[in-house]
Amino acid sequence: MRQLAPQPDASTGFQIAPMIDVVFVIMLFFMVMAGAIKVEHELKTTLPGNAETAKETEMPDEINIGISESGEVTLNDDPVGNAQDKELKSLYTQMVVMKKAAEQAKTKLLITVQAEETARYDRVINVLDVLALAEVSNVTFAVADTE
User: Fold this and answer.
1) Is residue 34 part of a domain?
2) CB hemisphere CA count around 121 (13 angstroms)
3) How many CB atoms lie within 10 A of CB 103?
4) Domain count of the chain?
5) pLDDT per residue as tens, the chain (147 positions)
6) How far apart are CA 20 and CA 1, in angstroms?
7) How far apart are CA 61 and CA 93, in angstroms?
8) Which residue in 28, 88, 102, 131 could disulfide with 136, CB within 3.0 to 4.6 Å?
9) Are strands 78-81 and 73-75 parallel, antiparallel or unpaired?
10) Sheet strand arrangement including 63-67
11) Bridge-partner residues for 111, per DSSP?
12) In this structure, is residue 101 part of a structural domain?
């Protein structure tokens, strides 16, 4: 048997051509993406700030709506509707004004409906309908104290 002579190592060495291809692809990616980046002043955004009001509005912590046995409706002990007024337009307008003032002051509008024990349920529903129309959502209930 004849022995074959050992062949020289067929090492190809370090291949630079694929490395250059990869570098060019990465460089092309960054060049294309650099054109897509928007500068901050081109975005046309405005930062939030405080709204200026003509006079200082002082919101009470909690607004009480009272409903008496006779059907009279009071707002913080001031009468806003009599027993015959089913729509309670004056209560509605005051609730809309208070809701807008609370939104400007960035506070919650807290409403407590305080009906007497013998008040009619349909009158309470009338008040709740007005609050729903005015889009007031933070409503709690309390029972009037008996004196």
Assistant:
1) no
2) 0
3) 12
4) 1
5) 566 666 666 666 778 888 999 999 999 998 888 877 766 666 676 666 666 666 665 555 688 888 888 888 888 888 887 777 777 888 888 888 888 888 888 888 888 888 888 888 888 888 889 888 988 888 888 875 655
6) 48
7) 19
8) 131
9) antiparallel
10) 78-81, 73-75, 63-67, 111-115, 139-143
11) 63, 139
12) yes
77: containing domain: 63-143
3-state secondary structure the chain: CCCCCCCCCCCCCCCCHHHHHHHHHHHHHHHHHHHHCCCHHHCCCCCCCCCCCCCCCCCCCCEEEEECCCCCEEECCEEEECCCCCCCHHHHHHHHHHHHHHHHCCCCCCEEEEECCCCCHHHHHHHHHHHHHCCCCCEEEEECCCC
CATH number at residue 102: 3.30.420.270
- At 50, list the tokens: 């405080």
Question: b/e map of 71-82 (b: 16 or more CB within 10 Å)?
Answer: bbbbbeeeebbe
Query: Is residue 16 one of the residues assigned to a domain?
Result: no
Q: Tokens 């609370």 map to which residue?
A: 102
